[in-house]
């Protein structure tokens, strides 16, 4: 049996830049997408952190680590308690978040265990 079309069929190579109009349309589309999807950020803008919550510059690392550990432990307990009040599947999601917080707490605890305040 003879197949009437080649395998794969031959196609014309057509570029979106074949005519001036298509090139202008493509450039306009790129500009529109860049305008909406890539907002420009001025390079001279310096980051100004909020001062509503401030950690003093003289607070030592051990104090910061202990505070972080206690905060993560509290968040873990709150999530665990809150998960107990929820029905599935939200309960599983809440327990998953609690597990991630607990992993962060374990990491901070390990840093505290390894921390040597003398050096």
From TrEMBL:
Domain of life per record: Bacteria
A Pfam family per the record: DUF6124
Region (Disordered) location: 1-23
Protein name: DUF3077 domain-containing protein
């Amino acid at each position: 049996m003879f197949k009437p079309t080649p395998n794969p069929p031959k196609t014309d190579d057509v570029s979106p830049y074949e005519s001036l109009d298509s090139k202008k349309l493509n450039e306009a589309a790129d500009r529109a997408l860049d305008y909406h999807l890539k907002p420009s950020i001025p390079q001279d803008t310096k980051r100004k952190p909020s001062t509503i919550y401030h950690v003093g510059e003289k607070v030592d690392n051990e104090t910061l680590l202990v505070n972080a550990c206690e905060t993560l432990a509290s968040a873990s307990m709150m999530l665990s308690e809150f998960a107990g009040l929820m029905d599935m599947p939200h309960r599983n999601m809440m327990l998953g978040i609690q597990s991630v917080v607990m992993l962060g707490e374990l990491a901070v605890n390990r840093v505290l265990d390894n921390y040597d305040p003398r050096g």
